[in-house]
Each structure stands twice: as C-alpha cells, then as structure tokens.
C-alpha cells in the first residue's frame, strides 16, 4: 500500500473541507507543468475498484488511482500560510527534479 504523511497543520486545514457523507480527497498525478508531472486534488465521493486509499483516519481519507499511487509513495503534505506562497505543499522524496515554482515534478 502506498504510504503518504500529512502534517498536523495540513490535517487541520483539510478537516475544514466539506467532504460530505462518504466524501474524500482525491489526489492524482497527471502529465503537465514544466517538469512533466503535476498533482491534482479534488473532493470526490466516487470510489472505484481501481482506486486505493493512501491515507485514512476517522476524519480524513485520501484516495488515488493505481497509476498515480506509484508517484505518491513517500509523499509529505504540509500547509503554509506565509505571505508569498500560502497553501498546501507537496514534498515528494522520489521526485528526480521539480520546476522553479514547485508546481510540477519529474519522476
């Protein structure tokens, strides 16, 4: 099973999302950005047989598709509220590189 970590601060911010009954956060990796791949994240309720849960607590479940799971192994999600670049930060120890703005990565 793919393992990701989420800081307490990020978990607190994710808890503010309205996931609704049976809702979860879906994170996928798609082609794009300067370095070749980028993350997408959206609230979802449709869990298919090709999906895997990569993080799960009583209050939060994060799901991805099987193809994205290999790129999420070891991913760390943090949250920053600094003035220049606030929001969720994805740090992937397996990425071989990333673009200057940090919006995409190379596998």
Can you offer a commentary on this structure?
The chain has 107 residues and is mainly beta. The protein is globular. Strands 3-2-5-4 form a four-stranded mixed β-sheet, with helices on one face. 14% of the residues lie in helices and 40% in strands. Strand 6 (76-80) and strand 7 (87-91) form a beta hairpin. The chain has a single domain, classed as Sandwich (Hypothetical Protein Aq_1857, Chain: A). The longest helix is centred in the first third of the chain and has 8 residues, at 8-15.
Number of strands: 9
Helix fraction, binned, reads 10-25%
Contiguous helical run count: 2
Task: Tell me the distance between the termini.
Answer: 19 Å
Low-confidence stretches: none
Q: If you compute it from the alpha carbons, what radius of gyration comes out, rounded to the nearest whole angstrom?
A: 14 Å
Record the SSE blueprint:
Elements: E1 5-6, H1 8-15, E2 24-31, E3 37-44, E4 51-56, E5 61-65, H2 66-72, E6 76-80, E7 87-91, E8 97-98, E9 105-106
Parallel strand pairs: 1-6, 2-5
Antiparallel strand pairs: 2-3, 4-5, 6-7, 8-9
What descriptors fit this protein?
three-stranded mixed beta sheet, 14% helix, mainly beta, 107 residues, four-stranded mixed beta sheet
In short:
14% of the residues lie in helices and 40% in strands.
